[in-house]
UniProtKB/TrEMBL annotation:
GO terms for cellular component: plasma membrane. Belongs to the acetate uptake transporter (AceTr) (TC 2.A.96) family. It comes from Streptomyces griseofuscus. Keywords: Membrane, Transmembrane, Transmembrane helix. NCBIfam families: AceTr_1. Residues 1-20 are annotated as: Disordered. GO terms for molecular function: acetate transmembrane transporter activity. The keyword Transmembrane helix applies. The chain crosses the membrane at residues 29-49, 56-78, 84-106, 118-137, 143-163, 175-197. InterPro entries: AceTr, Gpr1/Fun34/SatP-like. It comes from the Bacteria. Pfam families: Gpr1_Fun34_YaaH. This is GPR1/FUN34/yaaH family protein.
Length: 209
C-alpha cells in the first residue's frame, strides 16, 4: 500500500460509474421541424398557392429544418432510449432530405409521361411506413395518434392523387397535410410548454401502455 492510499481500500477496486447525463427532450424539436415543413409544402399541395415555381421555398426547409433537425432529434431520441421517437424522427427527417433530393435532382430527369408513377410509388412507400407507426402510436398518447392517423391519410391521398393523376385527390391530401401540421405543432407546443412550466397544463392524453 502506498503512502496516499486510504487504509482498508484496494487499489483494484473499480470506480463507481458516473451518473448518466440527462438531456432535454428532443421530441418538441422534431415535431416542430416536421410541422413547419409539412405546412409549407401542404399549402402548395392544397392549391392555396398555384404558382408552382414558388414551391422551391420548400427545398431549404426540407434540407435544413425538416431534414437535418429531425435527424438530429432522432439521434437524441436514441440517446434517451426512446425507440419510437428515434425511428420516427430519423425516418421523417430522411424523408425530407430524400424529398429535396428527388425534387431537385431526380424528378427533372424522369420521362414526363411516367414521372407521376415514380412520385406515387415514393409516397405510397411512406404511407405504408406511416400506417404501421400509427398502430404503434395507439399505445403512446392521443396527440401522436392523431398526428400519425392524419399523416397516414395524407400520404394515402397524395399517393393516390399522383398515381391516378388526380388534382382533386392531391388537393385533398394537401388539406390533410395542413391538419397534420397543426396537430404536430400542438404536440411540439405542449412538449415545450410542459417542460418549461414544469407542469402538465397542456394535455397530450396518454394512452394505456
Amino acid at each position: 500500500m502506498n503512502d496516499t492510499q486510504t487504509p482498508g481500500t484496494d487499489e483494484r477496486t473499480p470506480a463507481s460509474p458516473a451518473a448518466p447525463t440527462q438531456i432535454a427532450d428532443p421530441g418538441p424539436l422534431g415535431l416542430a421541424a416536421f410541422a413547419l415543413t409539412t405546412f409549407v409544402l401542404s399549402v402548395f399541395n392544397a392549391g392555396l398557392i398555384k404558382d408552382g415555381a414558388l414551391e422551391a421555398v420548400v427545398l431549404p426547409l426540407a434540407l435544413w429544418y425538416g431534414g437535418i433537425a429531425q435527424v438530429l432529434a432522432g439521434m437524441w431520441e436514441f440517446r434517451k432510449n426512446n425507440t419510437f421517437g428515434a425511428v420516427a424522427f430519423t425516418s421523417y427527417g430522411s424523408f425530407w432530405l430524400s424529398f429535396a433530393a428527388y425534387v431537385q435532382f431526380v424528378a427533372p430527369k424522369l420521362p414526363a409521361a411516367h414521372a407521376h408513377q415514380a412520385t406515387g410509388l415514393f409516397l405510397l412507400a411512406w404511407a405504408i411506413f406511416t400506417l404501421y407507426m400509427t398502430i404503434v402510436a395507439t399505445r403512446i398518447n392521443g396527440v401522436l395518434l392523431a398526428v400519425f392517423s392524419v399523416l397516414s391519410l395524407t400520404f394515402v391521398l397524395l399517393a393516390a392523387g399522383a398515381l391516378g393523376q388526380s388534382t382533386g385527390v392531391s388537393h385533398a391530401g394537401g388539406w390533410a397535410g395542413l391538419l397534420t401540421a397543426v396537430l404536430a405543432w400542438y404536440g411540439s407546443f405542449a412538449g415545450v410548454a410542459n417542460a418549461t412550466w414544469k407542469d402538465k397544463s397542456l394535455p397530450t392524453w396518454p394512452l394505456a401502455g
